[in-house]
Automatic annotation (TrEMBL), chain A:
GO CC terms in record: plasma membrane
Protein name: Thiamine transport system permease protein ThiP
Keyword Transmembrane: yes
InterPro entries membership: MetI-like, MetI-like_sf
Subcellular location per the Swiss-Prot or TrEMBL entry: Cell membrane
Highest taxon, organism lineage: Bacteria
UniProtKB/TrEMBL annotation, chain B:
Keyword Iron-sulfur recorded: no
Signal peptide annotation: 1-22
InterPro entries: SBP
Top-level lineage group: Bacteria
Tagged with keyword Metal-binding: no
Name of this chain's protein: ABC transporter substrate-binding protein
Transmembrane parts of this sequence: none
Annotated keywords: Signal
Length: 279, 385
């Protein structure tokens, strides 16, 4: 009887897992295997091989695109992280009406659709945008090139990623007990020591969650770079779309997708390793 | 990446489901149609497959009721496939039906491009048209029909033209060389869109390259022609620093029109129908004017074809005949801001005057896969210079 019950339980457990496994299998694993297979078929020939990948790294345009994407992604991730961390710390330990209002307002950008936000950025920071017109009023007639440039792209990434990262970090910081901070302060710790000795270690894991999410969001972004990025070099998302729909080179596009997947899995490796620790 | 893959797979699953459901719907609809045709008034239902932007759908929603009123025995079912969602698959279906030896298809009229005609011609899926079935074919320029071997009816057209701010440009360029000089003399005041994202920029790039080549090369898809592109690409490279912000090429046809609308540039290549529509809707300032240069930018008609396997050719030809009447063409011109498919002198004087600035002829580029080669080389040579 005992055996029977545990076997039943086992079957029930399997039955419960099967649907999610099937979904995972068909919507994640099969497409990945398919994409890898596609990427190995030589675009110019018919045989299997690494030709598409070799071209990705040897064609100057494509190589520039890859370096540019990594550059934009890493810079955007670091900037977003620094700003969100400062904001979260400020919101956690600051007082007064400013904190209250920022707390209510900072996540609004998350509810604005990407295309609309991008057009908003163009209207605001464009060559003849609101900002340049305001500056003109006070006599400044030189305006840096933001839209259609690297700066605009980083700016858009900050706009999209800061609210979510701040939200994540805020919830982690909420778990830092006041007593810890207060006693450390009493013992004479300065702000730097407070942050690096107490706040950072206590929210370390969440920081990795935030980094992973920002990194993956930025590296795969399309809308903002398509509308406000430079024509060349392009980020991988835009270049992939161009190769896929305009040049109709599906195998090269697959190789780019697999490359992007590999870049993300490096990030995923660090993420899982951090999560696994003291877990 | 995981999320992306998940999302796209879910989308595909959703689409499959929707297609399955639509398939069921289609079946019951045809059953209903055959049921109604058995009743007292014998009527034929023809299916018209069309695609493109929303304005194409709106055009047909105006033309079809007018046609059905004049021909009460014919019902037209409009199958509109928004651009990028499966227009290609309708053509693929026709090709597959032909190859698998099916006797008939439910596509009775198909709207497509020159490319679609040649693709279908290879497999013989389009029916030949003549004036006994469609008397109004006489309204069309004979040379245009000859180009498509009488397999298709060009019922509307548009072309790329120069759109400019007449306040800042009192004397617009008349030739391509004058245009290039104007760009050099007015740095930052001209923009064309990334050619792979829209036809206006594509036409600017293509004509800049082929102006150095014999005229007949535009109709050839011979890869050897690509060897002769250097001069054109050098010109585009040289013009790069004189472009908007020393070489910014906005995305999509609308990207450059936006720059013209807010006054950042004074001149852009644009589709005639887009520019005319936006001027009339006040999206572009009143000072916006259009002109065609010589040699002209490219453009092209949109064609209607009757599949050889259609069982209702007679009814389909009636609709074709109606579309080619001056009355229907007036609707086409007014709704789409496009050019009529029939000869201009059959149209009203008023319309002729309205389009006088842009109705000068245009060229057609029919280079097949070479188009993609141009985009690719533009991306490395011009954008990445």
């Amino acid at each position: 009887m005992m055996m029977n019950a545990s076997v039943k339980k086992g079957i029930l457990g399997l039955a419960l897992v099967i649907p999610s496994f099937l979904i995972l299998f068909f919507v994640v694993i099969v497409p990945i295997v398919y994409a890898i297979r596609e990427s190995l078929i030589d675009e110019n020939g018919s045989g299997f091989g690494l030709a598409n990948y070799i071209r990705l790294f040897t064609e100057p345009t494509m190589r520039k695109n890859i370096i540019y994407t990594l550059n934009v992604t890493i810079v955007s991730t670091l900037l977003s992280l620094v700003i969100s961390y400062s904001l979260a710390v400020y919101l956690r330990f600051g007082h007064g009406w400013v904190v209250k209002w920022i707390n209510r307002l900072y996540f609004i950008p998350m509810f604005v659709p990407g295309v609309i936000a991008t057009y908003g950025l163009i209207t605001m920071y464009g060559n003849h945008g609101w900002l340049s017109r305001l500056l003109l009023l006070i006599g400044i007639d030189t305006f840096p090139k933001i839209i259609y440039d690297y700066n605009g792209l980083v700016l858009a990434n900050l706009w999209f990623n800061i609210p979510f990262a701040t939200m994540l970090l805020s919830s982690a910081l909420a778990a830092v007990p006041n007593s810890v901070i207060e006693s450390a302060r009493d013992a004479g710790a300065n702000i730097g020591q407070l942050f690096f000795r107490f706040v950072l270690p206590l929210s370390y894991k969440t920081m990795w969650v935030a980094i992973t999410f920002i990194f993956m969001g930025v590296i795969g972004s399309f809308t903002a770079p398509f509308l406000i990025g430079a024509n060349s070099p392009q980020v991988l998302g835009v270049a992939m779309q161009q190769v896929f729909s305009n040049y109709q080179e599906t195998h090269t596009a697959s190789a780019m997708a697999v490359l992007m997947f590999l870049l993300c899995s490096v990030m995923g490796y660090f993420y899982i390793r951090t999560m696994g620790k003291e877990g | 990446m995981f999320n992306k893959a998940k999302m796209s797979m879910l989308l595909i699953l959703g689409l499959c489901l929707a297609m399955g459901l639509a398939g069921c719907g289609g079946k019951s609809a045809t059953e209903a149609a055959s049921a109604s045709s058995n009743s007292s008034t014998p009527s034929t239902e023809i299916s018209l497959y069309t695609g493109g932007s929303l304005n194409v759908k709106e055009l047909w929603e105006t033309l079809i009721p007018a046609f059905e009123q004049a021909n009460p025995t014919i019902k037209v079912k409009l199958v509109y496939l928004p651009s990028g969602t499966g227009g290609q698959s309708a053509l693929d279906r026709l090709l597959a039906a032909k190859q698998s030896g099916q006797a008939n298809v439910d596509v009775d009229l198909y709207e497509g491009s020159l490319d679609d005609i040649s693709k279908g011609n290879k497999n013989g899926i389009w029916a030949k048209l003549d004036t006994t079935g469609v008397p109004n074919l006489n309204n069309i320029d004979a040379s245009v029909l000859k180009q498509v071997d009488d397999m298709a009816v060009p019922y509307r057209a548009s072309s790329v033209v120069l759109a400019y701010n007449s306040q800042n440009v009192p004397n617009p360029p008349k030739t391509a060389d004058e245009l290039y000089d104007w760009i050099r003399q007015h740095p930052g005041k001209f923009a064309y869109n990334d050619p792979s994202t829209g036809g206006a920029g594509s036409s600017f790039v293509t004509t800049a390259i082929y102006n150095f080549l014999p005229a007949e090369d535009m109709n050839s898809s011979d890869p050897a022609i690509a060897q002769k592109w250097d001069q054109g690409f050098n010109l585009l490279k040289e013009l790069g620093p004189s472009m908007y912000q020393q070489g910014v090429y906005p995305k999509k046809n609308q990207g450059t029109l936006d720059l013209l609308a807010n006054g950042e540039v004074d001149m852009v290549p644009a589709w005639s129908d887009m520019a005319l529509e936006q001027t009339s809707k006040q999206l572009l300032p009143d000072t916006t004017k259009l002109t065609q240069i010589s040699p002209a930018f490219t453009g092209g008609p949109s064609y209607l074809m009757v599949p050889e396997m259609s069982t209702k050719k007679e009814a389909a030809q009636k609709l074709l005949d109606y579309v080619l009447t001056p009355e229907a063409q007036t609707i086409v011109v007014n709704k789409m801001y496009g050019y009529p498919g029939i000869k201009w002198d059959l149209m009203s004087k008023e319309l002729q005057d309205k389009f006088a600035s842009v109705s000068a002829s245009y060229r057609q580029f029919n280079g097949g896969d070479l188009q993609q080669e141009i985009y690719k080389r533009w991306q490395t040579d011009v954008a990445g210079q």
